[in-house]
Structures are given as C-alpha cells and as structure tokens.
Write a structure and sequence with these properties.
The protein is of the alpha/beta class and about 180 residues long. Helices cover about 35% and strands about 15% of the residues. The longest helix has 16 residues.
C-alpha cells in the first residue's frame, strides 16, 4: 500500500474560534512548578490535540505570552483555556469541591499503573504534572485521589514532563472514547 501525506487542508482542523466553542474532554492539566517554558508550550499543544478542558499553571510555572511557550505551543496557547493559580493546594481543594478526581502523575507507593487506570464515564479528572527535577510535591501527592505511574523499563527514572502529558492524555482519551 502506498501512503500519501495529507495536506493541511485535508487534515480538517478546527479554527481557534471553533476549538474554543467545541465540546472538550473531561480532563484538565495542572502544571505545578514547571521550570521549562518549552515544556509548558508543549503541554499546551498536547492539551489542544486531545481537547483538554483547561490548563492550570501553578507556582513558578511560566505563563503566556512568552516566546519560548509560543515556540513550542504553535498557537495552542491561544486556543486552550488556561489560568495561573499561585497556590496549587487551594486549586486542588476547589477542583475537588467541583467533583474532579485529582490524579498525581508520580511514582509512589500504592500508585496505579497507567494501563490499569479505568476512567469513569461522566467523571472529570485533573492530571497533575510536577517539577522536572523533584516531581509532584509530596503535599500535592497526599491530597490526590489517585497516583498514576507510567511503567518504564530502561535505566532512567522518569520521562520528560511534556512526554508524560502526551502519554496520559492519549491513554485517557482513548479509554474514554473507546478508540
């Protein structure tokens, strides 16, 4: 079989305006103390690709507009709804009161491996990604309802934050819409 790449027109992507008014999947990303603005931009792009409801930028995580975020977001910082919240624990308390399941993406005792995670229909999830060096803050892990861990088989102990966001978003969306 011969394959031909699709043109940009053939991809039939939403405009920014169409994206903003389109129905989203029932998940948000919380980026807590992410140092790299390129990682922030990349998570915006992932949030756009998988129609996340929102991205929360907490603590020292940089916010748009910034050229390093824009460089990797490729415009997704304009399509995806976002909010800066200084204190992540207050955000977690608010999201819990709104019915979100709080999910720390972290290697922890008692964590659930990602392939064993079963999203519940009509349930909203908040996926927390932590600092590139220290991971998700221990206080945040303790306030989470679930700790998800991506199994790894090599010599490194972690994945890049933006890679993790992509894996988690794909897993959640594919399980939610039964691809």
């Amino acid at each position: 079989m011969a394959f031909q790449k699709l043109s940009m027109d053939e991809l039939n992507r939403l405009s920014v305006e169409e994206f903003k008014s389109a129905a989203k999947h029932s998940f948000v990303f919380i980026l807590d103390d992410i140092r790299s603005l390129n990682n922030v931009g990349s998570v915006f792009r992932t949030a756009d690709a998988f129609k996340a409801s929102k991205v929360y930028l907490c603590g020292l995580t940089g916010t748009p507009p910034h050229r390093d975020i824009t460089k990797t977001a490729l415009g997704a910082d304009e399509s995806v709804e976002w909010q800066h919240v200084e204190e992540v624990l207050s955000l977690i308390a608010r999201l819990k009161s709104e019915g979100y399941v709080i999910v720390a993406i972290e290697q922890a005792e008692g964590s659930t491996f990602l392939h064993e995670f079963k999203p519940v229909a009509n349930q909203s999830y908040a996926f927390i990604l932590g600092n590139e060096v220290f991971g998700v803050n221990e206080d945040v892990v303790n306030q989470s309802d679930i700790c998800l861990e991506i199994p790894q088989f090599g010599t490194k102990h972690s994945l890049n934050v933006s890679v993790t966001a992509g894996i988690v978003a794909w897993d959640y969306v594919s399980k939610s819409i039964n691809i």
